[in-house]
Amino acid sequence: MTAVTVILDAAPEGFGDAKAVDPLNLGALLADKAGVEGRHVVVADRDGEHSLWLRDPSPGQPLAAIIPLDKDFTTRVTSLLRFHRRLFGKQSGPPARGWPLSRYRQARLAMMLQALDLRMSGATYRQIAAALGREDDAELPATEWKTSAGRSFVIRLVRDATAQMNGDYRKLLRIR
Questions:
Q1: pLDDT tens digit string along 3-50?
Q2: Cα 34 from chain centroid?
Q3: How far apart are alpha carbons 31 and 15 in whole angstroms?
Q4: Angle subtended at Cα 96 by Cα 92 and Cα 98, rounded to the nearest 5 degrees
Q5: What is the pLDDT of residues 76-123, one digit of tens each?
Q6: How far apart are CA 3 and CA 176, in angstroms?
Q7: What tens digit of pLDDT does each residue of 124-137 get?
């Protein structure tokens, strides 16, 4: 579950006016999986998909939103407001800032993975630079290579990829 997932559960007593949600009436479902912990659905939307976790998927059950008081609170509220607008027939608006990952971040993550794979296979920083299309940097004389932007770039990629591998990958689920 990510920070943009809207968590819905049975509304408490006294909230009979709370709306029931039938995912099939929300639009095209990109994913729909039921399990012991409830039902997870992803609803298509031209402004950006909606990820929902229905903890009590009983048909006709009035629902309430659950918003954990964690460091992703603002993102969760933004996602809930988008879903609320959609639920009541309005344009949902754009997803929370930083979600989904931008093309730049996706490309950098791909380079990080490639650099890490090469480094773990025993490649030198020069070999990694060449594999990433920085042949001009990789062919520099040793004295120039030591202070080159290409070498620094490759070292940062490997450093950041190693951090991701060692647990920082969880940050990808958080919005900046």
A1: 789 999 999 988 878 888 888 888 899 999 988 899 999 999 888 889
A2: 21
A3: 29
A4: 140
A5: 898 999 999 998 889 888 777 666 667 788 889 999 999 999 999 999
A6: 11
A7: 999 999 999 999 99
Token code pair at residue 55:
């903890």
Structure tokens at 95: 């997803």
| CA distances from residue 4 to 10, 169, 175 in whole angstroms, order as listed | 20, 17, 9
Phi, psi of 140 (to 5 degrees): -65, 150
- CA atoms in the 13 A half-sphere facing the CB of 119: 19
- For the chain, the domains span 5-87, 103-173
Terminal CA-CA length for the chain: 17
HEC string for 96-152: CCCCCCCHHHHHHHHHHHHHHHHHHCCCCHHHHHHHCCCHHHHCCCHHHHCCCHHHH
For residue 76 the two structure tokens come to 């969760």
Looking at the whole model, is its pTM more than 0.85? Answer: no
